[in-house]
Write a structure and sequence with these properties.
The chain has 90 residues and is an all-alpha fold. It has a domain at 36-84. 29% of the residues lie in helices and 0% in strands. Helix 1 (40-48) runs antiparallel to helix 2 (59-68). The protein starts with 39 loop residues before the first helix and ends in an 8-residue tail after the last helix.
Length: 90
């Protein structure tokens, strides 16, 4: 009646329910260590070897800020001290 290699229908691979969806749904994504990033402003200040009390008097920093005021982070207090107006894109 039954062949030796026959598998009953209820045990066959065709009847296994397919797992649907993302098994990681609802689980928080693994977060690696927070790596502090340095802003362009901080890089320039370091490159020019300026201390915070020298920022306002530095003509090189002021010129860099004038060119980059709408695209890079520059402290607002410094922009106000130089009389720069910012073009808001919001």
């Amino acid at each position: 009646m039954f062949a030796r290699d026959a598998v009953p229908a209820w045990k066959g691979p065709k009847n296994l329910a397919k797992r649907r969806g993302n098994p990681n749904w609802g689980k928080p994504e693994p977060i690696g260590p927070v790596v502090p990033t340095i802003t362009s402003f901080e890089q320039i200040v370091k490159e020019y070897k300026l201390t915070p009390d020298q920022y306002v008097r530095s003509t090189r920093l002021r010129e860099w800020a004038r060119r980059n005021k709408n695209s890079k982070y520059i402290p607002e207090a410094l922009l106000e001290a130089w009389g720069f107006e910012i073009e808001s894109t919001l």
